[in-house]
């Protein structure tokens, strides 16, 4: 059976447009449909991306549609919302983002969509939880890109610090996709060897790493980009395309996503960034890392921040 590989993107702004372009260039989809309250802008974005499609290896349809298009979509990407401004945290955008979600939930539910919902809109963890609760869909079908982008940034920071290709670095950023994200340094390996071992064995190179600085640099990169150009877009667009690929190809790949915890890591009823196996089912299984005491504390602190804002979101 020929698969449709149809992706609907709700939101045709900076993030939504780059998600579509990344999907186009990676060539894993057959159809991209935009939904946006500003239809003229969505038409322009779709047309611009469609022009680029003329140079791709195979034809990909890029167009504007409506919620009826969600019915037979494999994946819906939620990229609508309000971009954060200089000086704002992702959590500061919550009120405006929830207002947007309230306009989306009912038509999305009513569309008959039965695929996987990937939330990108910030604050990502809270939006994923809000959409899961208000759609009533099972937890495997609703997820956020979570700390996948944070993990990419961590790899870049490590590469700059130690000069090793990011593809040889195994690591995860966990917790909130935001300023309270944490890094389980005890689980970072370089070419299969634990980072902490390398730091002890090579005090003149790896041993000079300042782990606190690496954490703060990883957390800060997003705001540095916002200050420099007004928004982040290329990184998250590529993260989304990579996640779509893992789902469409049923890769069973481990990725750091924001998904509902039900006892894992000692947490209940919260969406937060953790490593999970991603397949055609969406989130197939959460992977529990054996965190040390300080890492557990940082993860719990991040969860507390998310939980506080989740409660506020339900009151909006």
Radius of gyration: 19 Å
What is the mean pLDDT?
A: 94
Q: Tell me what the CATH architecture of the largest domain is.
A: Alpha-Beta Complex
* Largest sheet composition: 6 strands, parallel
What is the N-to-C order of secondary-structure elements (H for helix, E for strand)? EHEHEEHEHEHEEEHHHEEEH
Under CATH, the topology of the largest domain can be stated as: L-2-Hydroxyisocaproate Dehydrogenase, Chain A, domain 2
| Fourth-level CATH superfamily of the largest domain | Lactate dehydrogenase/glycoside hydrolase, family 4, C-terminal
| Domain module count | 2
- What's the CATH C level of the largest domain? Alpha Beta
First-residue to last-residue Cα separation: 45 Å
EC number: 1.1.1.27
Subunit structure: Homotetramer.
Domain Lactate/malate dehydrogenase N-terminal: 6-143
Binding site for substrate: 84, 90, 122-125, 150-153, 232
């Amino acid at each position: 059976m020929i698969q449709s590989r149809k992706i609907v993107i709700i939101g045709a702004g900076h993030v939504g447009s780059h998600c579509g372009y990344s999907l186009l260039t990676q060539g894993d989809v057959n159809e991209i449909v935009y939904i946006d309250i500003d239809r003229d802008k969505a038409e322009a974005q779709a047309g611009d991306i469609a022009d680029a499609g003329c140079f791709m290896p195979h034809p990909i349809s890029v167009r504007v549609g409506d919620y009826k298009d969600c019915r037979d979509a494999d994946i819906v990407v939620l990229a609508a919302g309000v971009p954060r401004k200089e000086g704002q945290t992702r959590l500061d955008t919550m009120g405006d983002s929830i207002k947007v979600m309230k306009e989306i939930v009912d038509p999305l539910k009513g569309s008959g969509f039965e695929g996987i919902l990937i939330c990108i809109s910030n604050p990502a963890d809270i939006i994923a939880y809000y959409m899961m609760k208000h759609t009533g869909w099972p937890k495997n079908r609703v997820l956020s890109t979570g700390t996948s982008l944070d993990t990419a940034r961590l790899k870049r920071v490590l590469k700059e610090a130690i000069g090793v290709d990011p593809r040889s670095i195994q690591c995860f950023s966990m917790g909130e996709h935001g300023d309270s994200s944490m890094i389980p340094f005890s689980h970072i390996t370089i070419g299969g060897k634990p980072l902490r071992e390398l730091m002890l064995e090579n005090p003149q190179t790896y041993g000079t790493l300042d782990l606190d600085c690496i954490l703060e640099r990883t957390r800060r990169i997003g705001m540095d980009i916002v200050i420099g150009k007004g928004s982040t877009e290329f990184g998250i667009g590529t993260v989304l395309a990579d996640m779509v690929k893992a789902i469409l190809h049923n890769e069973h790949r481990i990725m750091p996503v924001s998904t509902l915890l039900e006892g894992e890591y000692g947490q209940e009823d919260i969406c937060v960034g953790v490593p999970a196996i991603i397949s055609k089912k969406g989130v197939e299984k959460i992977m529990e890392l054996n965190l040390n005491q300080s890492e557990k504390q940082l993860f719990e602190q991040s969860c507390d921040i998310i939980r506080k804002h989740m409660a506020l979101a339900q009151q909006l």
